Amino acid sequence: MSALAFYVAAGIAVFAALMVVLHKSPAISAVYLVLCFFAVAANYVLLHAHFIAAIQILVYAGAIMVLFIMVIMLLNLDQEERQRRQFGLLTALSIAAGLCVALFLVLFTWEPSTQAVPKQIDPFTFGTTETVGKFLFTDYLLPFEVASVLLLAAIVGAIVLSRRSEPGPGDKGGFDA
Amino acid sequence: MLNVGLNHFLFLAAALFSIGVIGVLTRRNALVIFMCINGAPPIFKDR
Q1: How many CB atoms lie under 10 A from the CB of residue A116?
Q2: pTM of the model as a whole
């Protein structure tokens, strides 16, 4: 039962991801991306990470997709103009395969973190909001704070980049390229 | 029925990551590139 659910969810996720990449219209790509997010959320449920699954649907399928669809509507991106591609499909495939192999080598050879985690897992409270919050503010405090500083820097950078340039005396003005 | 272990999820994560990388490298539209970036990394929270 669990295996069947996994294969169905994984198949939907891979199919939807392929359609996001291959479809011509950005709007259709966005809709397939929603499908992909839901399939990934189903996989989180299969991993007993219910809180993460709920957050995945709320944040990604909700907030980020609204952002994408608003940008598509505002910029009127119906069809992608046919330009010369930066990389051929074969080059992209080989780069992706190489990155994937490198990532797996790192994951499988980096033992210490994989050994440290399973000791603390309690099957009854695993994946609940309380447990996730406790881990976030105890064991994983440093990555959490690093992520928040990174997000703050991104917000400040977005404001600086989108600021209207006001030409001052002897100033070329702003960050316009 | 075959039991689903951690490796199955890792292979799924690798497949989605690779598809995202291919999308970033082949598409010209900046917004679609952002969509590819969004689809790929969250699955590595599995780990």
Answers
A1: 10
A2: 0.73
